[in-house]
């Protein structure tokens, strides 16, 4: 453990600017922590040599006065982003040995800003999961443990579980995540860090292994709101290579952290308080509301009537798109091939061997809901309900500026819990999925600890392309929460 | 006369609908920046997008959209300002994404029409159902290795227009005329080169039959990827007869995809397509709906060339050509242009006769193309001028034309070199006539006795005496005077 | 809605995923559970609602017709499990 690994990304940046540390020093410190925390299985691929070479180049840039916004800052990249010359797995066996000859736009943007990648982070296979347990490389482990049972391994959440674990364990200053139904926000909540899924279209999807194209969105995961603001600024931007990327100027997100939220209206949706919501979650939510009130914002009860249909809608739309997006993994041009006597046999064997059970299940469901005779009943119906869900938010945002909800219905669970029924597992994303379906920005920040010592997150949801308000409100809540804890042993 | 198949139980009518895949003329592919040229090294015109690599995304090529709209306008079709790209999901070795990006329930072009020019000069209108944009697949090559198929993705992602006719065609001949006309329109528009050998235009034929008088639509079979107009016609004919035989022997036709074996002149079931396909179309979430402005359409409309039907009407009105001649001349833009160059400022009928007659014959015989013709339009025009000013008789002109084909020289030069100028000097012609009359007093008498048919023989003799150079009209006139005394 | 074994087999064939006989019954149960779960959407009145296939509310951006890519056959083939003479290769497809 080194002091350098306990800096926030913003603090490390400021030290670099002042010449109080170097990119090489920072990188070395974090590489040491990556090695020290290997048991968390946060990384699928470590690239320390590359990172050190980049750190040297970064220090040279700084000497020449050409340093970028994130120059010299060690980060990690979710292994769903294609990285030129570095193995990319999507945590699946089917991509075995795949080395992309191209770089995703988002990881490329970070590189251009000078950020230094220490490697590729673990995730649920093809980002399908809420626990990281579906990774073909074994699960990443949450650095947090229960006070009552410190020996029990907990999940970091998913799918960006490796990213969350690495940030929480101080292995990196920040990490990229992707979020399709909660894959940034839920692991951020489980690991006591901050993460934001920006508005759909804010970050390019080019070069990110696709799960569900109409929902997938990249975002930053870091230890503070400011760190996320800095990182999102470097990641975002219009990309002509992604037809769904939006041609808007990237605002200075960091500048939005004014601390002044007086007069802002904060929506509190009644539907996010279902029967059986745990008292702990409910309490932390109430605390959040109180902090905002204290800061001069006005809580407003709102209705999002179609909330309960978000989960079933998502579990039609996302698998349908996934079943098509994952058709390209056929053992022909890249990845793993299992020989077969015929072409079809080769496909069927390669895909059976390459995809894990959760991915297979989702491909099968997706295939089914798109198939002849079922399309209207399932897929078309879900797309209609999706519009109703988006409309709920649109109407709510006519009266409120931001919406506050819990991020997840529970703190991190044990590695050996919640495994039986996929539908129960999916309930983890019940609070994050509606935002994804509506394409809105959603941020999770740690708001406190459970009685058993585990982090609990709150979610702030904003208007389309109004991440600035989300960051501003999050900044105020962060100060009020005073959550500067780190997991035991970190 | 309707085309019918005479079966044992009566006469049967054929119902044909054609789906044409026309490769869009563009530099780059529909959704990537890779080139589209034919015949490149394997996998050299492939981007990561075309090869379906992880994380790759499509971005549409504006010119391909323009070309589809242009073609739609050329087919007098409805242009849909909002259209949607959908994924057609199926697994095949040359389909890297595992789906084809196509358009399903919201194509860019809706209903239109195409006018068939029938052999008797009449026309018939065939409905166009729709036109949509889609990606081509790559190519599987099965004959390079005993146990393996080789995959080349150069074509993968090239833009195609699928143009679907209504089931309005009733004979193999009409199917042929439809394809010829469609190709002609596409070439006029510059949206597809129409080359069926290279596969830039491919045709699937949907064929069914029904007893004459019936209006039902029976089960159809789809004959895939036939690569010449002649084969399309053969395939339809074979398939229709097969249907009649099956029905008449008490059987049923199963809806299926069939392949035409040009060697045997037969269609056969494609077993690989047997197990029911379920394409699971859904809107491509990587592509938003394609929304185009009316102004975009209007701009394309303003730049449309004169199309074959309009040109044909103009040729008939402006040049007084009959429907058949006009139809033949406008079938290719280049032949229409050739004709107009020849006809400009000249007798259009004479120009038409020469282009349709000797010129087309020479073109066929020489194996040349109209872009590099055996006789240039300028030379053919100059030759017609020599006919008109009396320098050449029709007969001499044929000789001059043959020499132009042979030497490529200008007609005036050939007339000069070979002394082919028509003799119009009445003195010289009269001398020749006198000589012939003097040598054949008995025949002169016969004519005078009323056997006027012999006059033709005298004309021939005079022409022979002048080596064909005498102006035939003058010979006739002077001979008549002299014989009658 | 519940799926039987033969339905699961048909879906798996469509999705080109080989399943062992012993996998069919458990999967039929899991998939049926999921379908039962999503079944609740039928309660929602969606008359007159347009399906929403994307949240992005913009037109489709277009690219100029320029050749900017390709000529990278080596990279295209670099990750291939099997290739020969510049082609990808697969078990022979009999047409």
UniProtKB/TrEMBL annotation, chain A:
Its EC number is 6.3.5.7. It catalyses: L-glutamyl-tRNA(Gln) + L-glutamine + ATP + H2O = L-glutaminyl-tRNA(Gln) + L-glutamate + ADP + phosphate + H(+). GO terms for biological process: translation. Gene3D superfamilies: Amidase signature (AS) domain (3.90.1300.10). One of its GO terms (cellular component) is glutamyl-tRNA(Gln) amidotransferase complex. Heterotrimer of A, B and C subunits. This is Glutamyl-tRNA(Gln) amidotransferase subunit A. It comes from Magnetospirillum fulvum MGU-K5.
From TrEMBL, chain B:
Its EC number is 6.3.5.-. The keyword Metal-binding does not apply. It is an enzyme of class 6 (ligase). Transmembrane segments: none annotated. One of its GO terms (molecular function) is ATP binding. HAMAP family: GatB. It comes from Magnetospirillum fulvum MGU-K5. Residues 337-483 form the Asn/Gln amidotransferase domain. It catalyses: L-glutamyl-tRNA(Gln) + L-glutamine + ATP + H2O = L-glutaminyl-tRNA(Gln) + L-glutamate + ADP + phosphate + H(+); L-aspartyl-tRNA(Asn) + L-glutamine + ATP + H2O = L-asparaginyl-tRNA(Asn) + L-glutamate + ADP + phosphate + 2 H(+). It holds the Pfam family GatB_N. Heterotrimer of A, B and C subunits. InterPro entries: Asn/Gln-tRNA_amidoTrfase_suB/E, Asn/Gln-tRNA_Trfase_suB/E_cat, Asn/Gln_amidotransferase, Asn/Gln_tRNA_amidoTrase-B-like, GatB, GatB_C_1, GatB_Yqey_C_2, Gln-tRNA_amidoTrfase_suB_CS. This is Aspartyl/glutamyl-tRNA(Asn/Gln) amidotransferase subunit B. Keywords: ATP-binding, Ligase, Nucleotide-binding, Protein biosynthesis, Transferase. The keyword Transferase applies.
TrEMBL record, chain C:
InterPro entries: Asp/Glu-ADT_sf_sub_c, GatC. It catalyses: L-aspartyl-tRNA(Asn) + L-glutamine + ATP + H2O = L-asparaginyl-tRNA(Asn) + L-glutamate + ADP + phosphate + 2 H(+); L-glutamyl-tRNA(Gln) + L-glutamine + ATP + H2O = L-glutaminyl-tRNA(Gln) + L-glutamate + ADP + phosphate + H(+). The keyword Chloroplast does not apply. SUPFAM superfamilies: Glu-tRNAGln amidotransferase C subunit. Keywords: ATP-binding, Ligase, Nucleotide-binding, Protein biosynthesis, Transferase. One of its GO terms (biological process) is glutaminyl-tRNAGln biosynthesis via transamidation. Its EC number is 6.3.5.-. GO terms for molecular function: asparaginyl-tRNA synthase (glutamine-hydrolyzing) activity; ATP binding; glutaminyl-tRNA synthase (glutamine-hydrolyzing) activity; transferase activity. PANTHER family: GLUTAMYL-TRNA(GLN) AMIDOTRANSFERASE SUBUNIT C, MITOCHONDRIAL. Belongs to the GatC family. Heterotrimer of A, B and C subunits. This is Aspartyl/glutamyl-tRNA(Asn/Gln) amidotransferase subunit C. The lineage of its organism: Bacteria, Pseudomonadati, Pseudomonadota, Alphaproteobacteria, Rhodospirillales.
